[in-house]
């Protein structure tokens, strides 16, 4: 390999020169537009070439300029899954502004908070009306207003350190944290020589939420290489289809899939990704066994494990997974990307020795400047590098180690932050939202289960008249579904240890008791119920299940529903869909649907 690493203790810095790489996104895209005339982005109805992408983006920039949106402003984008999303984002950058991607499927209160917290002065929506939003300080725009407008004569000048994007991540305060990413952050990441090489003839699947940092990889990987982005259904929707058939139909060759989803899919159908040239996974611990399942099938492409928090611009390490990795206890996260400094430090910020476990700290070209207009929180999480004058490091809160070969291993979280279905979640944020529900005196939220079966459980202290259903509905209106607890349970008091701290061990024991108590264990009455119940017991993180027990109360989610659907159809010769599992919610109702299907 043509890069050089220095390894001192548990510091790794990849020093490969990248002087010719663009340092801002506009320069990166302009080269692609000049070199490639093929389709840039498409869905089942619309296709936009790179030339049209550039033209439409210039009209968006004109619309912003004529709407008196000044360079340096932030502009929110809350548009559904449509090819026009890309020219909107590019047009915002051409106007010298930063984009704030907000998934329109998020709860309204969360979207409004993100708009206000990012100080957005304009908002692009699918309808252009903004009728759902209470905010009156933002100009609501529709990309169709730009049709027929004159083209921006030239892009607004941007500098590498100018703000390009704000992404929100879970925060312990009860509200998401706005992470700033500069042009240089994103350009350094996407042009990195240690990432998989994307070719102009590749087709990249866009399946991620636009609010999720994985979308940045999907979009800018194509924009850098001249590849095509194909807009597909969300991952949860794809799980209700024949994924392999959908990927073949759209000629997808490159895909980024959350680790937890990858693990689930591999347990059900190891041939799903056989036609891909490059499959990237990341977001949580990857199962070596499921990697082995992939390679044991007909997959002949390249598999990469990516690691990194949003604060380090999507990913900061990369590991080419080989079949030999399937024999390990855990799949490594590999070497740091070019220009990235990675240190493993102990509690006193001393460098850990080889194989010693410490906290992962990240610095270098892809390191975020911090949280938008929040100097105190930035200072809390971004520290001075004790080993490099003028350098900064982000304390990830992740446990890790470096082996004698210099390969980094991710060993889970050091604090209460957890991964739920591939999303980084701060249980205290969910806890704070529950505490704000009228009638709730106190609450505690913990994660139970392991790996793909990990769930949030909320314990609530309040009057007997307090409805758990009403609490759930309020939380669902404010938080995305992966942050909503799978179960709400009532307690007379939150248990504490002799030292006065919250007793999470007692809470986990109580969670197991509550789940067991909720299971009435109504027995099956026919052969179909017997078999479906057997499958539920094998896939859900609960031992005792009755045929009238609620799928969600038992810890079910869309990924488990996907596996239930595949198992039931394969083993019982039925034709149920994933949505049948999610809507029927009990073994008895699902058996009725299966029998009548």
UniProtKB/TrEMBL annotation:
<dbReference type="InterPro" id="IPR009081">
    <property type="entry name" value="PP-bd_ACP"/>
</dbReference>
<dbReference type="InterPro" id="IPR000873">
    <property type="entry name" value="AMP-dep_synth/lig_dom"/>
</dbReference>
<dbReference type="Pfam" id="PF00550">
    <property type="entry name" value="PP-binding"/>
</dbReference>
<dbReference type="Pfam" id="PF13193">
    <property type="entry name" value="AMP-binding_C"/>
</dbReference>
<dbReference type="GO" id="GO:0043041">
    <property type="term" value="P:amino acid activation for nonribosomal peptide biosynthetic process"/>
</dbReference>
<dbReference type="GO" id="GO:0005737">
    <property type="term" value="C:cytoplasm"/>
</dbReference>
<protein>
    <submittedName>
        <fullName>Amino acid adenylation domain-containing protein</fullName>
    </submittedName>
</protein>
<dbReference type="InterPro" id="IPR036736">
    <property type="entry name" value="ACP-like_sf"/>
</dbReference>
<feature type="domain" description="Carrier">
    <location>
        <begin position="523"/>
        <end position="597"/>
    </location>
</feature>
<dbReference type="Pfam" id="PF00501">
    <property type="entry name" value="AMP-binding"/>
</dbReference>
<dbReference type="InterPro" id="IPR045851">
    <property type="entry name" value="AMP-bd_C_sf"/>
</dbReference>
<dbReference type="InterPro" id="IPR010071">
    <property type="entry name" value="AA_adenyl_dom"/>
</dbReference>
<dbReference type="GO" id="GO:0031177">
    <property type="term" value="F:phosphopantetheine binding"/>
</dbReference>
<dbReference type="InterPro" id="IPR020845">
    <property type="entry name" value="AMP-binding_CS"/>
</dbReference>
<dbReference type="GO" id="GO:0044550">
    <property type="term" value="P:secondary metabolite biosynthetic process"/>
</dbReference>
<dbReference type="InterPro" id="IPR025110">
    <property type="entry name" value="AMP-bd_C"/>
</dbReference>
